[in-house]
Structure formats: C-alpha cells, structure tokens
Amino acid sequence: MRVNEPQGWRMTRTSRVTTVSEACELLETLGLLTVAPVSPIASLVRAVGGPSTTANWWGHPAGKKIYSIALGLEESADVFGCKLVGGKLTIVHRRLWPALHALVVRVTSREPLPPDARRLLREIEQRGAARTTELRSAIGLEAATDRRRFQRAKDLIESRLLVVASSEDRAGESHSHVATFRPWRSWVPADVARAARRLTAQGAVGQILRAAIAASGPVDDEVIVALFPIPPELARRALHSIARSTSARSRSRH
Q1: What's the whole-number mean pLDDT along residues 170-186?
Q2: Which residue of 37, 83, 146, 157 has the lowest C-beta tally within 10 Å?
Q3: Cα–Cα distances in angstroms (integers) from residue 35 to residues 53, 82, 169, 231, in the given order
Q4: Measured between alpha carbons, how far is 239 from 217 in angstroms, rounded to an integer?
C-alpha cells in the first residue's frame, strides 16, 4: 500500500541542503531524517551531498559540510538523535517527540528482552549513566569472546529506544568512540511527557509512520514499516488509519 508520493521526499531529490538553517527547515517539514542513508528514508547525508552519496561519506567532497551541518543540528533545541530507523542514527524534529516517547512507553518498553539485553538495560537504569567499558564489565561480558554478545544486547536496547547514547562523535557512526548510555526517560522534557500521555499507541505509531512516509521514496509502505520497532499488526492499523484520513482529505478537495 502506498499512501502518497510525498512532497518532502521530492525536495531532497531536486534541491541541495547547504546550511544548518536549511537542514532544520527540511527536518521540520519531514519530521525525521536518518543521518547516513537508510533506504528508502531521506537522509541528511544525501540531502547535503546528493542522491548518490553513500553511507561511507567521510571521503565525499561534501563530507566536511555534512559533518558541519550534522554538528549544527545537534545544537538545535528542536532536534533529538536516536536509533529509530533501522537501528541507525536518526534525527527527529521536536513536533514528533511526544509520539516518539509514547512509542517507547506504550510499545517498545513492553516487548520482552533476551537475558543479556535485560541485564544491560537494568544496569543502565540503576547507574543513571554508564560507559560501554563499564557496562561490559558490570554484566560479565568484558572478555573479547563476548564482544558480539554485548554488541547485540546494546544494539537491541538502542533500536527499541530504551536508552539514549551520547559521545564526542554523534555524526560519524563509522568512527570509533566510547559511548555513554542513559535511560530513555532521562532526556524527555516534562511538556513532551505530558503530551505523550494523551496519545494512544496507534496514534503515536501513526504520527511516526506518516513522517516516515513523507521522508521516503515511492515504495511500498511495508518496506518502511520493517525499519521501525513497531509490531506488524499495530503498524497495519496505523497505516489503514493514515490511508483513510488521506482519502477523506482528497475527497474534500474535489
């Protein structure tokens, strides 16, 4: 099912972002952008460097500009970064924060976790903030042979938005760095938490998927849904609701 062919996505194909201000305007229009390309969602890297720019963008002629704009976005009070799309760094505009928080409270935090991920999340919540090296030792996965187990657990709780990570290099995912992890609720402003309480799970998912559709190319919506930590049945209900409201608006214009 394709709800629409979004205007916002066409903007990233026909014009190039050259300043932080333009990037903020694009993000506000779409609601979300990945940093590096995650097909079919529009990305900051391709909005700045062009549609052929790959995830390995550091050597691209526009690499310094991409990095500079990404850092500028980090400083904006209207921008938040998390691993929302495909487990990759995604920048989300403030207007979607209530839906994002409601997604965590009503959906992803209620999904069961395997033992390693559960222990890791509990350790972060107890400490309030902890670095990767501290966490590996605390949950007994500090051995070199346990590196993959720890990575799987970390990736899972990040992709479900149960924790937030900060480091000296948020824009460059390919660079090595030591991240600090905090519980998800640690960043949530009070007004966002209040607004999130007014949203149902389907309403929150609908807002996020509508933004994702606006930021995507002309592909089947199921391809988009697969990139998000959303149960399939809940996603289908949200998509049907989006389609009905889009159809109703279209009829009212004629």
Answers
A1: 72
A2: 146
A3: 12, 10, 13, 24
A4: 16
**What pLDDT is stored for residue 3 in this prediction?**
46
Q: Which two tokens stand for residue 61?
A: 């002629």
DSSP string, 198-223: T--HHHHHHHHHHHHHHTB-S--HHH
What residues does each domain of the chain span?
7-96+204-252, 103-190
Torsion angle defined by CA atoms of residues 71, 74, 80 and 83, in that order, rounded to the nearest 10 degrees: 30
CA distances for 76 relative to 158, 184, 186, angstroms: 22, 19, 18
Question: Which of these, 208, 205, 219, lies nearest to 3 by C-alpha position?
Answer: 219
Query: Hey, CA dihedral for 136, 138, 141, 144, is it positive or negative?
Result: positive
Tell me the HSE value of 115 on the side-chain side, using a 13 A CA sphere: 4
Alpha carbons 197 and 92: distance in angstroms, whole number = 19
Q: pLDDT averaged over the chain?
A: 88
Q: What is the mean pLDDT of residues 180-191?
A: 97
Q: Average pLDDT, stretch 20-32?
A: 95
pTM of the model: 0.88
Domain 103-190, what fold?
Answer: Arc Repressor Mutant, subunit A (1.10.10)
Assess contact for 179 and 131: CB atoms under 8 A: yes
pLDDT per residue as tens digits for the range 68-102: 999 999 999 999 999 999 999 999 999 999 999 99
**163, 181 in Cβ contact below 8 A?**
yes
- Full strand arrangement of the beta sheet holding 180-183: 130-131, 180-183, 163-166
